[in-house]
Amino acid sequence: MLILFTLLILGLLFGTVSSYNSLQKLAQDVRANGSNIQVALSKKLASINQLIDVVKNYQEGEQLVQLKVSQDTSTANMANSYQQSGTVLATVQGIAEKFPNLKASEQYHRLIDSIQACELNIQQSREKYNHAVKEYNTKRVRVPTVFIAKSFGFPEAPYLQFDISGINEITSLKDFKTDDGERLQQMLSGAGNKVVNLASKAGKVGKDFATKIKENNTNK
Predict the structure, then answer these.
(1) Range of 18's domain?
(2) What is the CATH number of the domain that holds 118?
């Protein structure tokens, strides 16, 4: 009986560790794809600021003196930076319409192309991110993973949506943190001690049983 119980515990441990590793991998994919969005946005903001500097050579005035895009792409400020980038870019392009030589310059077109490429990259990265979130969240609610996800510190991951006002739900991404292995280690340590104790008891029972058989054979 003790042997069967020990095997059951070992089976549960194996299933728990397997589910934990799967969740950890999927959570890493979510974070990696979120970082890719930040990198793409950072490149877009840098290109917009370069474009502003180019336009300043043609337009001197208060309108461009204060015009600059914040390059803070941390999760807490990403939505604001994305929204600001669209507003500033529209303003700069509006000013450029007044200067044919500027619009015809190779540098202007190179920066515009770079910004458009970054925007496409942001959209593609968002799609990959949301796909990773779907994989993670789906795994999180499946049996048997659902039984350990919350207790092991694997919260639901937020989807990202883009609209005119910026990026929705991006601020909740900064709160997406998963277990660093400490809880799993605590569980394995406790379970390991139980298995050792059970194995010790099973060994003692087996030894006593063997002794009784030997005594019976001797009496015969």
Answers:
(1) 2-219
(2) 1.20.1440.20
Domain count of the fold of the chain: 1
Q: What is the pLDDT of residue 191?
A: 47
| pTM for the structure as a whole | 0.70
Tokens of residue 154, six digits: 């694997």
pLDDT digits (tens, 9 = 90+) for 54-103: 888 876 544 555 667 777 767 667 777 788 888 888 888 888 888 888 88
Per-residue pLDDT of 146-178, as tens digits, reads: 888 888 888 888 888 765 445 554 545 556 666
